[in-house]
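Posting here for the record, re: 3-isopropylmalic acid.
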Amino acid sequence: MSEKKILLLPGDGIGPEVMNQVEKLMNFLADRSSFSYSTETKLVGGASYDKHGTPLQDEVLTDAFNYDAILFGAVGGPKWDGVERTLRPEAGLLRLRKELDLYANLRPAVVFDALSEASTLNSELVLGLDLMIVRELTAGCYFGQPRGIEELPDGTRRGFDTEVYTQPEIERVTRVAFELARKRKNLLHSVEKSNVMESGIFWREIVTKLHESEGKNISLEHMYADNCAMQLVRNPKQFDVIVTNNLFGDLLSDCAAMLTGSLGMLPSASLGENNSNGFRRALYEPVHGSAPDIAGKGLANPIAMILSFSMMLRYSFGDKKNSSLIENAVQNVLKNDFRTKDIMQNGKVLLSTDDLGDSIIDELDKHT
Ligand code: IPM
Ligand code: MG
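Prediction output follows.
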C-alpha cells in the first residue's frame, strides 16, 4: 500500500484520549501489515479557539485538502457555552464538512452479540441488529439561509432557520444510499416529514423519481421522521439502510446509537464525491461528542474512534482485510468481557481507555 497521509484532528474533551488509542493501533498495523502511513495533528474546536480565537484556522482548512483522509475526535464543551455561534467549537466541524463537501454521512449501528444485554431495549429486539443511516451532511437547516435572531417592529424578537434542499443535493445522497443498499439487503427507507413540510414533499418526490430511473431493483419505503424514531425503538431490525436529511439524521442516529448499548460504540464516515481518479474526500469521526464530564479520567470508550479508523481503512484505502481484523478484535475483546464504564455490566472487567485500546491491539496480535 502506498503511504497514506492522514490528518488527525483530536479536538476537545475525550477526543485526544480516544485518538491516542488509534495512534497506537496505526503504529501496530504499520509494523505488522502493508499499511503505511504518516500523520499530522492539528487543533480544531475549542482547543483551536483557545489558542487562535477561531475553531478552525483558514490554514488548517486549506491544508485539510492535502490528505488522503481525516480522522476527527470530538468538539465542544460547556467551557465555550458563552461563545458566539460562529466561533463555537461545533462551527469548526460544520465548516470542515461544508468546505470539503462531505455530503454523505454514513452512520452504521451494529449491535455486537456480547453487548446485546447492554442496550436499553430487550436484547432480542436488538440482537444481530445491523443498520446504516445515511445522513445528508452539507445542506438543510444546518446551512440554509436566511437564518438569524432579529427584533420585530413590536419590540419582541424571533429566531429562524431555513430548511432547504435542492434536487442535486437530494439526488447525490440518495445515490450513495442506493449503492449501500445494493451491497446489503436491498432495502431502503427514505425519511422526511412530507405530511408537514414543503422540503419534505420535495424530498419524497425526488427520491421517488430517482428510484424509478436508477434504483428499480431496490425496495424503497417512505417513512415520516417521527414514525421512524418510534419504529427504531419498537422494531429496529425492520431497517437496513435509512436515508434522511441533516437534522433528522442527527436525531435518528443518536437514537440508533443507543440501541447498540452506548453512544461510545458508533463510528461514522463523511464522504465527498468520487472524483475521476477514484479519490473521495473523507472524514471519519465517532458519533459521540466530547463528553467533557469524563475527559482526562481514562473512562472514555475508544471503540467508536477505533471503528471510525476501521471505516477509513475500508472506504478510503480499500483495505478490507485490516478493517475486518479490527472489527473482529473489537468483537473478541467484548466477548472476553472487557468493558469501559459506559458499557459496564455485572461480572465484567472494567478497563481504562488506554487498557481497552491495548486489549484490542493484543487481540489483533493473535491474528496478524
Ligand atoms: C453530530 C453532532 C454535530 C451535529 C454537532 C457537534 C455539530 O451532533 O455529528 O451528530 O449536530 O451534526
Ligand atoms: Mg449529533
